[in-house]
Amino acid sequence: MIFKRFCLALAALMWIVAAAPASEPDPDPVEAAAPPPKSEAGQILSLFISQLQAQQARLRDMSMEMEIEARLPRLKKEGSLRAIRQISPSGEVQFLEPHPSGDKMIYKDVIGQYLKAETEASRGIKDSRGNPVSIAINTENYRFRHKATISSSGRRIYVYQVTPRKKRLGLFRGEVWVDASSGMPLREAGRLIKTPSVFLKKVEFVREYEIQDGVALPVRVESIIDTRLVGRAELEIRYSNYSSIQAAGQTMSAMVQPQ
Q1: pTM of the model
Q2: Rounded distance, CA 118 to CA 95, Å?
Q3: Per-residue pLDDT averaged across 175-200, rounded?
């Protein structure tokens, strides 16, 4: 029973790490606490916030290939899953054509529970009282400080340090990389400030994006989770071959969760 609760908490936490904040369903408009700064860094930040608000609509009605790899090194167990991930026009997530491999326990108790957590959370994140909860990267949830300006692959990138305003599950302390020309996210990395279970200690992650046709598409998520029961848990998710659901010619029939 304890191990089962641990797996449920681990899977839920993996979803939190993997979730792209810009894909939250119908976020309320963000009102800045103060007039936007006049510096270039402040202008890029304002553009970034507005782009994230529009991003959730751009990522809907999309289909993509997804590959998940999960590992528990101390137990010498690992498993993976390849599937089609779809986001409906209303923002709900479903999975098709699953192809699992590796350890069955990892697939059933970790990856399977992760898929279930993402499917349920796509209908809206709520607290224990049933109230909507936002984990979006915006000025309501975070304080921003311009940390550096760098160049990579021909892009000018603004790096911002982010600090949560509240100790809320799903928020992190770390940094975001923003493309200066478009205001789109390129990278998010840090450590979650809160975990959902005493079984889970420290959670570090990296989310990477690629800009295609004016949309920042999640392409890779990597996370390392320190646990009290089984040591380190490792997760890597890769997304590829994005297309509209209609163009892919796929139905929205859902994947059956592993029993």
Answers
A1: 0.83
A2: 10
A3: 91
Residue located via tokens 């021909």? 154
Q: Give the distance, in angstroms, between the CA of residue 219 and the centroid of all CA atoms in the same chain.
A: 11
Domain that holds residue 102: 2-25+37-127+135-241
Structure token digits, residue 19: 């979730």
| Radius of gyration of the chain, Cα coordinates, nearest whole angstrom | 18
Find residue 145's DSSP bridge partners. 161
Answer whether 22's CB lies under 8 Å from 55's CB: yes
Q: Is residue 257 part of a domain?
A: no
| Cβ neighbours for 36, distance < 8 A, ≥ 6 positions apart | 42, 43, 45, 46
Give CA–CA dist 83/255, Å, rounded: 9
Residue 255 resides in a domain: no
Positive/negative CA dihedral, 217, 223, 236, 152 = positive
Q: Is 175 exposed, middle or buried (0-12, 13-18, 19+ CB in 10 A)?
A: middle
If one counts the domains in the chain, the total is: 1
Q: Of 111, 119, 134, which is closest to residue 14 (Cα–Cα)? A: 111
> Residues 33, 39, 42, 48: is their CA dihedral positive or negative?
positive
* Percent of the chain at pLDDT exceeding 90: 48
Residue 120 domain flag? yes
258 found inside a domain: no
